Request: fold
Amino acid sequence: MPSLTLLGQSVVSGLLAGGLYALLALGLSLSWGLLRLVNLGHFALAFLGAYLTYQLGTVGGLAPWTAVLLILPLFFALGVGLHAVFTWFRVSEFTSLLVTFGVTVIIESLIQWYWTADFRRYETPYASLSFRLGPLYVPALELLACLTAAALALGTWAWLRFTYVGKALRASAEDPAIAAAFGVNHRAQSFLLSGVAAAYAAVAGGYIALISTLAPSQMWAWLGVVFAVVIIGGLANPIGALFAGLLIGVSESVTMAVVAPAWAPLVSFSILIGLLVLRPGRA
Amino acid sequence: MSGHSRRVAVGLVAAGLALSGLPALGLPAFYESFLFLVFFWVSLATSWSFLSGYAGYFSFGHGAFFGAGVYTTATLTAGFAVPFLASLPAAGAVSALLAVGIGAVVFRLRRLRGELFGLLTLAITFVLATIVLNTRIDGGPGVYLSAVPLPRLVASPTGTMYLLGLALALLSVTIAYAVTCSRLGLGLFAIHDDEDVAEVKGVPTFRYKLAAFALSAAVAGVAGGIYAIYVSYVTVGETFAITVPLYVVLMSILGGARHWLGPAVGAAIITASLYAFTGGNTAVLGRAVVALALILVILLLPDGVVVAVLARARAWRRRDAAPLTVPSPEAPPIATSHALRAAPVVASLDSGTAREGARAAAVLVCEDVWRAFGGIRALRGVGLSLGGGEIVGLVGPNGSGKTTLINVISGHYSADRGRIALDGAPLAGRPAHAIARLGVARTYQIPRPFGHLSALDNVALAATFGTEPCALVEARAEARTWLDFTGLGRRAMALPGELNLHERKFLELARALAARPRVILLDEVLSGLNSAEMGSAIDLIQEIRGRGTSILFVEHVMRAVLELSDRIVVLNEGEVIAAGRPDEVMRDPRVVEVYLGKTHAA
Reply:
């Protein structure tokens, strides 16, 4: 049995890693739940964002937050553009999965073509910055990522719940025909939402660039866990995604500490399978 | 064997013979290796389509079954010195068992359809990979298989692998063709379109899905076993990578996942085009080009290349042929020997004897049937009986429980309490397909035909899974007679989407009749028809009764109810409030109150 400190440390790093899961899951959950599009391309966009942050930082000398601010509007436009394709072809929920897989492969190939398949590390002075909380180490960047995830989740929740646009989006997801009959302009709002989801990918990408080592094929490594987070959290439920991310993060990191690092994937996917099979009622 | 299947058999045998001669030509090993990869992907993609293409249960877990096969062969040959060829059946069996285990849990859950099934199977792949990685099956460093002795089918090892790959590819395509021509295939296609209706029409959906899943996994497992020896060094990272499930899905979609040859064509196209781009930087851009091509195909040819080409060819042929003499090329041959049994004996009994027969014995009996949905008690102790050849009209206001009763009798919902019996055999607790086979058929108020099946196959499905199960060829012959009976003979090859409401209502009737049921439950067959159509429908119902079939008849059109019914049962808020001869019941003050309000009842 590992010491209490080790256990505490693994809970802390699990929470922080979970924040990043939640950050990635947020955009995916929104487009799946409210637009009925399963967007695999979200991972590719996040990695494109990460590489752009890296490029602007190492070559352009821009600080990461400046870089992300520049990337955000670009990604918003990218999201809107992709959504225009989906709307034009009336892509169904399932077809969207296949089409966005293609999009992901294209973006992955482009990244690999430009930045090669080598691992890249974005060295920043604050990468190793951390502070002590009693006996526990808290890395500053990962804490910031986690706080960003929490803030975005809360903000998105409030946006969906209290604004007209949010309510209209939820109504359209429930029944597009009825919502349209009440004067909801679903088209305009769905473009807005796709733009926002893509911008979330850019934010997640910025943190991925700062925290982890980059390689084009790494985007597939996130896929399974983040989908688990999305489903466990409930579609179009930002707060759910946040907590599901933290849950998966902690369970993985405790498994790593208590059993062995290689067993970690078993936990998140077993949670997912268990929930899918046992949860009554909800789709 | 029909002409079409003979041509396919000849084609497959010819292709097999021609391709198996290739090693004798002494070409460079490169060709054998390349074609081995094509065969490998043909086998995997085709096997994937058994469940996911035909029944529409998209699996992203094909890598799990492939991987189970890889590691079964690796463990048996490297660890236990089992001969390579002997390990292949084991590889198939382990994968099939895994699929049966997963399916036995997952296929019972109605909500795990669509993309949730896909993600679940993907998650299972990751779990399996983690277990293999962390146990002695692999343990981390991978398994070397280069020392495993190869059987010498031909002189060169690549030639041997080539022949094994060819054999498996031919086997999987043959299975695909056999399945799509069988009852199993028709049942799976129906599950794809509307699983609940398929079950009610007599398709044992759970067993069929399980069978398709096991078959699919078994072929993938054998493919894995062969591949393990081909690469001679297996690792968890490579084996369970996302590549296998995604390529398999894309190949099948590209070629046409619902066509027996579609996945094979898709696999050949993608393998060849990926190969064209190997080496250096072009490989990276080549992948992007392939991905872009896939996006375009999925958006522009959603049914796949094979189906699109066939449709184009058919349209072309039709334009050349004289318009009046086109029997659709897919029209199945009709077995004349069967036509005798299927010829409907129209109205040979006069209605008087039918009414006498009604008194003889109750065919369908419901006693004290209860059913609640949450707090809503839809049926509260309903009792009714239906005699042989009798027509009972079931009336009542909207929400009184009429359709719920039909759903409970046909087994779509289970009763919370009470007894339902057909010819004395209890129905409660039986799955819907078993009830259909015993002789209960129903129609849907809003027609629910299988959208991708022709009118003929919609009816043939009901016949082949009905009370007198028969082979598909006979069922199609029988279906023709029922389409003629309902006046849809000329529309046999039309898809349901091309039929108008009146025709679709009659298609519902033809489907119910083709099952040769003891009892037909008609749910508002007349609603939405104009008065001429209604007249022909009423005549049809009379004819059906003339053949001795009992009818329970939910209807709002009072003229028809009074004209057709021997007895009327009135439901209100889930309870029977009146039952008896039409003229008696319609005078019952409680019935008048329910229909017209209290003041008129006095």
